[in-house]
Specification:
Layout (H helix, E strand, L loop, with lengths): L19 H6 L14 E7 L5 E7 L1 H4 L4 E6 L9 E2 L6 E2 L5 E2 L5 E7 L2 H8 L3 E6 L6 H5 L22 E8 L2 E9 L2 H7 L2 E9 L11 E6 L4 E5 L4 H12 L6 E5 L15 H11 L3 E4 L2 H5 L6 E10 L5 E13 L5 H9 L10 E10 L13 H19 L3 H8 L18 H12 L9 E12 L4 E9 L4 E5 L8 H13 L6 E3 L2 E2 L13 H4 L1 H24 L6 E4 L2 E4 L2 E4 H7 L7 E9 L6 E13 L6 E11 L6 H20 L5 E2 L2 E2 L18 E7 L21 H13 L10 H10 L1
Parallel strand pairs: 1-15, 13-14, 17-18, 21-22, 29-32
Antiparallel strand pairs: 1-7, 2-6, 2-8, 3-7, 4-5, 9-10, 10-18, 11-16, 12-13, 12-15, 14-23, 16-17, 19-28, 20-21, 20-27, 24-25, 25-26, 28-29, 30-31
Helix pairs in contact: 6-7, 10-18, 13-15, 17-18
Length: about 750
Amino acid sequence: MTARANELLHVGTSLPGVDSRDKITGAAVYASDLVLDGMLHAKILRSPFAHARIRSIDTASALAVDGVVAVATGADLAGLDPYYGAFILDQPVLAIDKVRFAGEPVAAIAAIDEAQAYRALERIKVDYEQLPALTTIEQSLAEGAPALFDRTHASTLTAAPPNSRFIQEPEPNVLFEYHYATGDAEALLRECAHVFEDRFSFSRLSHFGLEPHVSMARAGANAIEVWSNNQDPFLLREDIARIFGVPLSSVRFHGGLIGGGFGAKSYCKIEPIAVLLARKTGRPVRLALTMAESMATVCEHAAEIRLRSGVSAAGETIAREAVVLLDGGAYADASPSVAMRIGTRFAGPYVWRAVKATVKVVRTTTIPAGSFRGFGAGHVAWSSESQIDMIARRLGHDPCAMRLRNLAPFGSSNVPGETPVDSDLHAGLRAVADRIGYAKPRQPGRGVGLAVAIKSAGAAHRSDASVRISGSGSVVAAAGVSEIGQSTRTVITQIVAEALRVDPACVTVVDIDTDETPFDSGTHASCGLAVSGLAVAEAAGKARAAVLAFAAGKLGCLPAELDFENFIVAYRDARYPLAVLLADSQLALGTEFRGEGSKQTGGGALFWMPSWTAAEVEADAETGAYRVLRLVTAIDAGKAINPQRCQSQAEGAAVQGLGQAMFERLTYADDAPLNADPLRYRVPRIADVPANFQALVLEHGQGPGPYGAKGIGEAGNLTIPAAVANAIADAVGARVTDLPVSADKVWRALHKA
């Protein structure tokens, strides 16, 4: 073995992104760049009404437009299994008989070019019978409210997690109800020295990915081929096969670079529309949404949250009860899973003797709500960290000291039965508090707020991978994890290069092709590194073992006597290039050494992603106007495979969280969204980012991934809103409990106080 055998050569270094140059120069190929011979362009006619019955659709005039090849409506779904959803199958490919939100697809056109398709859309005549709109939770749950559905739906839901139960569609306009309990919260609350009840609101958010949804499809008599910027290639393949009644082996999915998703491109979205038109026309079809259309496709759940928390006289956290109403929009999407994640996470990072939660997903005639970065952890962090701060101030305790007193110690569980915490939560909080100067005296009108959160990750996930080594000096890695901006390809390259001890430039990570690529459950729960990385490392190790076994046979020794580095086999003092050994063996040209790996996780948390934030604000006690002066955030990467990529993830997440805190909100007026377009929806600009902004990447070294790594992608945005609200309360005494924390809300809170 070489003297460097135990050194890390490529892991822990900030290797430039393998596709960074292409992205910077515009050479990177995204779904919208793809062109197929004979391709048609598709456009969607969307409902102008939030709730209406479709009496008739006349497409004759649209079909007469020059260049139009086909028009599809709900009638074309006859004989298919036309409903989809991540867990409850209730959303039709195109509206069938009824529309349930403004913007719902009613018809789709395939034409020679986009201009012709747009002209034809204007010629489609739809006769609607308007029905009452239910755009709020209160309206949907009101006595006498019309039911959006008159039946229950097929479902893939199975057994509930431990300590919980759920009910699918338990009552009109309630999609899902989830109950979680550990310990006897009600009894303990009666015994607590102090019990506090507070209410919080979480705003509806848009994912606002800069790349809209794009899908292309080609369909023959016995095969369907799809290209899409969807982050669930294998799950989507199953949906397409089921909807169109074809064998799974007849569906092929291609995936490449994705220009941001944050959950919007998970699970089935627009792909079945492209397939439907491709089958109807017999030609390839491209369906590319505008950003406004993407914003009308899926959003994050708005929520009403009530927390009842009991503490001891000394401020020790004892018991908590949470009741949550989630606005699920018109269709299920991923709502059941989001509800379950929210229900099980109200302990936050603190030790509680009992936690009880009830989460209801309410149907409304609004944009369907689904996955969003953090998968419900943002809702929990906002309400929990705001209330922890409120409790500390009510009791006259220092908010930082109270947190340190109650944070779960490393290796312990925050509630009975949970996976032990694998980060030093105390050290992380002290790190951000020290960086921002928490203990220093405050200037008038300035305040510092803290927040801590943890998110579970890696549960019930499977990733497979393969690695091939050629004698010519190249390595090809294949894994089903999607590249959505988190630099997965770069990190996989580093893991493979480390395992094989070759130059990263020799490693290629191929695009996803479900006919060729090993299976993956989907790019969720920050599993791209921790789970897929383990599968890749195993595959690389097996490929290396195959090389050593071959060389040992050739050299007449044991594999353990050999080393392999930079495509050279070392035996004692001799060096044998792999290409030479292969040539001497007279093996077939192109012989490769292949390894395969697989990682399957269980139902509990594989690891925890913590987030710590300290924010300093300056607020005006007369107007409520405020600005964030300093922002310090921290995440625990376990082991940073690529420190710079981790830094970028932490910074991007924090800025996204800043938008959630200060101004992001998808609003409705009457039955239609007011700002579901990129010009009206307010996201952070560079001027909104504090000049003093630090994102710390900590390495506690306890992750289950390669070299002790963890996933980090969903952690950094969780604590920003609560930290900002807590800082404002510290500065001027105004407590805002509904997001976003706008100046007018601060002003009202000041006057109320």
